[in-house]
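Q: A small favour: would you put together sequence and structure tokens for a protein?
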Amino acid sequence: MILCCGEALIDMLPRKGADGGACFQPYSGGAVFNTSIALGRLGIPVRMFTGLSDDLFGQQLTASLAASGVGTDLVAVSDRPTTLAFVTLTDGHAKYAFYDENTAGRMLAPADLPQVPDDVKAVFFGGISLAVTPCADTYAQLLAQVAGDRLIMIDPNIRPGFIRDEAAYRARLDRMFAACDVVKVSDEDLEWLMGPGATVELARKLIAKGPKLVLVTEGAKGAHGITADRAVFVPSQKVTVVDTVGAGDTFNAGFLAALADADALSKDALSGLDDAALSAALGLAARCAAVTVSRAGANPPTRAELA
């Protein structure tokens, strides 16, 4: 069982109405939501912890999770509104405008923290929920509680325009990095965190903060798996890109699914991964992401679609 912790929101994606005018259509989304959905579609037992509204959008999110086999018994439900993210696409690349003040996800508090079941072997954190309070501090507290004997993966999925207190955000991430096992970043995330430099060099500076493994995605080029003394690279699969919404989130799910397939969802097993196993995990992650970018919106593949 994998527990995904972070935002679930509504992506308002640009569309054209019947009269040809511009409009937005609501799609279930959010970085951590997408990762949980992708894990469920890959047949991995998964639950989600987040704050959901009981409004119409919250009901849509709950139904979407259930449809992909994601457990929602740990979700904190409130009557606050759902976070909305209005998306604009330029050459297939997404930019976001978030409406997040006083929402069900944003206002998640320590009192909402669940008792994490014993069958949870890995916990995933990420997304914009690590950038805003009070939910960010709540997730950081949960990580501190579960990090001792469970595999921890973080994807900060950095949105610079969403960060209001950069010093506090960096300090919070550093505390979380110190207690985690895997960090996944895009090449842009890595440079924002560590400054300019070569990918492997920057990743090892990040490793010095605590994680054993750093995954770095470089879009159409491929992805790196970097440890303190090894580096593996797997090229991306070539596809026609429709848009990039959910690509990194699906990559995360593919990587975790590969670890689950290899019975490697533990700290000791992660430390023992050889280059072949790491390449295989990156390869599955890249295949999953390739399917997602080949179709509109965050629509991760099932196992059958990867066959």
In short: The chain has a mean pLDDT of 91. The radius of gyration is 18 Å. The first strand starts at residue 2 and ends at 5.
